[in-house]
Specification:
The protein is an alpha+beta fold. Helix content is about 15%, strand content about 40%. The chain has two helices and eight strands, in the order βββαβββββα. It has an eight-stranded antiparallel sheet, with helices on one face.
């Protein structure tokens, strides 16, 4: 996705920003910490740009907690070069073993099940490292 400018990653009180600086080239945004691999971030971004739900589970659910959503979950915001932003939160696991995710579509929250590859790439390359004592 050549029009992707940055990815904001939030997990609990931790946050970091990944900024595209060129093809397959990413850098940590100001104040962000961690070690990243540009090629892995690029592959993950490409997968998310073509996301297809395994299952759509709920539209405007009254209780996101029943899908395993809470403040410690990984939340991602993809910002395009034109300033458009798309957000996705990863929740708990469904009965089929897929991770729940929530997205905003036309002003409503939708819950879906992510394909395993997306879940694995997000947890491996976008999740924030634990704070070191």
């Amino acid at each position: 996705p050549t029009n992707l400018a940055r990815i904001e990653c939030h997990q609990g009180e931790r946050a970091r920003t990944l900024v595209r600086v060129g093809t397959n080239s990413w850098a940590l945004g100001e104040g962000s910490q961690g070690v990243i691999n540009g090629r892995d971030i690029e592959t993950t971004a490409e997968l998310f740009s073509e996301v297809v739900a395994t299952v759509w589970d709920a539209r405007s659910p009254a209780d996101l907690a029943k899908f395993g959503f809470g403040p410690a979950n990984l939340a991602l915001t993809f910002e395009l070069k034109d300033g458009t932003r798309h957000s996705l939160r990863i929740g708990g696991k469904s009965a089929t073993g897929y991770a729940y995710a929530s997205v905003e579509l036309d002003g409503e929250t939708w819950v879906l099940e992510l394909p395993f590859a997306l879940q694995q790439f997000a947890e491996t390359f976008l999740a924030l490292p634990e704070k070191q004592p």
